[in-house]
Design goal:
The structure is a homodimer. With about 240 residues, chain A is an alpha+beta fold. Helix content of chain A is about 20%, strand content about 35%. The first copy, chain A, has one domain: Pnp Oxidase, Chain A (Roll), CATH 2.30.110.
Chain lengths: ~240, ~240
């Protein structure tokens, strides 16, 4: 485990089942880098919104695509507070009483101030990195973005000011006196997997399968692929800076 | 498609790619009922939080487990505004330019006012339903909850005041002039599946596999299982009231 950690404050301290809380960069970043989709909470006129979107990490910065918060950000140049959360569901846990039913999971909550990436060059670079972060080497194979496409794309970024990870990985946990009861108890693993590629039927003949997608094999876990893509693109040294 | 629909207001109107927006109960409820985990956004002192949790639907009401919002709710008896979001990732879409890279997905955002279910009987009933909603018939097989367990569990509920569904299911969509380019383009299906049950090693010999879990077969999609469980428990007539 790395010694570098996010500060623990009342905002990010894990309250419920606090023994599951982690604050070190290595744990938090591993949860983030295994995902493509996050949920972002933000507030407009006191009303909270929760929006799913694709995101990616660079060191202790997070970036994502535009959302309804864009309207808010257009007028609030200094930025708005957000909470970006990633959750991996790892199992269903069926215990001997309702109270001990649970799920195994890995989740990370990141707090920061969101701001628009306005500069066109910076935005173009961010979007190129985004593609390669998910699909190593792919950006070089694509038709380059037009200025119009760049202008139509909103990129939002934030520095992670505080973060926490929370992991449950213990499967069935029951009260000692309940284990002898004749009740079925089990853990059902849950994974998110990709299927076989469905090539676009309008592709010209002879287009080769990109080498950067070699790891995208049918049945493979998406969290493993995303972690691998991240490390391929950024290198192991970048994965925890 | 049912004719019953949620009202469309500035709060829930889908802004980005608004042609993907759906407001009818049938579409929104189908997205909700296919899920076990949601993300909930709420605000404490201007700071947004985004928390993952298990949830379930009864008609146009949603219920979920306690979260950090609990502290807030303890002092704000009339309730606090929340946004509950469910997202199913259905595919990765690799197009011929960065701009047209996308994912297929189904998501639902529900707006309402969260309040604590304080009454112990009502809470007990809600938790029994929760277990059966995920695992049909299971509640009757369990060691009954103790009063202490009930008191230690926080159940939060809300009426869906407004909601929107958003669905993308078109796979690769490129600019007409890009289709002829020699660039690999494809859709990779993504599914969340369960694995083989891992029975608790401390179970006594001879405990039978519960008939209510007959649909929990290895490799099956979790969204299909959750939809099936919902309908088994509530019946088809309840699924869209």
């Amino acid at each position: 485990m790395s010694e570098t950690a996010y500060p623990v404050t009342p905002r990010n301290r894990v309250k419920r089942l606090h023994e599951r809380g982690r604050y070190d960069h290595e744990t938090v970043h591993a949860i983030l880098d295994a995902a493509m989709i996050c949920h972002i909470a933000y507030v407009i006129d006191g009303q909270p919104y929760c929006t799913p979107t694709a995101f990616w990490r660079e060191g202790t910065h997070l970036y994502w695509h535009g959302s309804s918060a864009s309207r808010m950000l257009r007028v609030q140049k200094p930025g708005i507070p957000v909470c970006l959360t990633v959750t991996h569901l790892d199992s269903l846990v069926l215990a001997r009483c309702g109270f001990n039913h649970s799920v195994d999971y890995r989740s990370a909550m990141c707090f920061g101030t969101a701001h628009i990436v306005e500069d066109l060059d910076e935005k173009a670079k961010a979007l190129d990195i985004m593609i390669d972060r998910f699909y190593p080497g792919r950006n070089a194979e694509l038709r380059p973005s037009t200025t119009q496409e760049l202008k139509a794309t909103m990129v939002i970024g934030m520095t992670i000011e505080e973060a926490s990870g929370k992991i449950r990985a213990k499967g069935v946990g029951d009260e000692e006196e309940d284990y002898a009861l004749p009740i079925y108890a089990a853990r059902f693993p849950v994974t998110q997997v990709i299927g076989a590629a469905e090539p676009c039927p309008r592709m010209p003949a002879g287009v080769p399968y990109p080498p950067g997608l070699a790891g995208f094999t049918p049945g493979r876990r998406l969290d493993e692929i995303m972690t691998e893509s991240y490390r391929t693109t950024y290198g192991p040294g970048q994965s925890d800076d």
